[in-house]
Amino acid sequence: METRVHLPDTEKPSSIKHVISALNDQGLEPKHDKKDWGDWINLPPHKTVISIESINGMTSSATIEYAEGEDDALEIPIITAFRDLGWYGTDEDGEYRL
Fold first, then answer.
1. Which positions ≥6 away from 37 have C-beta within 8 Å?
2. How far apart are CA 16 and CA 92, in angstroms?
3. With contact defined as beta carbons under 8 Å apart, do 80 and 30 qualify?
4. Which parts of 1-98 are beta strand (E)?
5. Is 58 exposed, middle or buried (0-12, 13-18, 19+ CB in 10 A)?
6. Chain centroid to CA 53: how far?
7. pLDDT over 90 at 73, yes or no
8. How far is C-alpha 82 from the chain's CA centre?
9. What is the pLDDT of residues 33-44, one digit of tens each?
10. Nearest to 46 by CA among 68, 26, 24
11. Residue 72: pLDDT over 90
């Protein structure tokens, strides 16, 4: 399962540090993995990852890629973290409040 999240265009981007902090506040232990080809937030020992688009450490969109069988345990804390930051979800019907 995959969930796309973003900040509305009217909002300033969040820092990746704020995203990491919000995930920590939900009891997760996120690890930021910056590569030349993109940024990832890993949630060890889970296999679920968050692919996060960033420019100079700032971000306004991400894709949560749940590993098989992990969405039930991780969906609520991850979505709560992004909701607390004011982010929205996006699906085939458009934008929705998390």
1. none
2. 26
3. no
4. 2-6, 14-15, 31-35, 38-42, 49-55, 58-65, 88-91, 94-97
5. middle
6. 10
7. no
8. 6
9. 987 777 999 999
10. 68
11. no
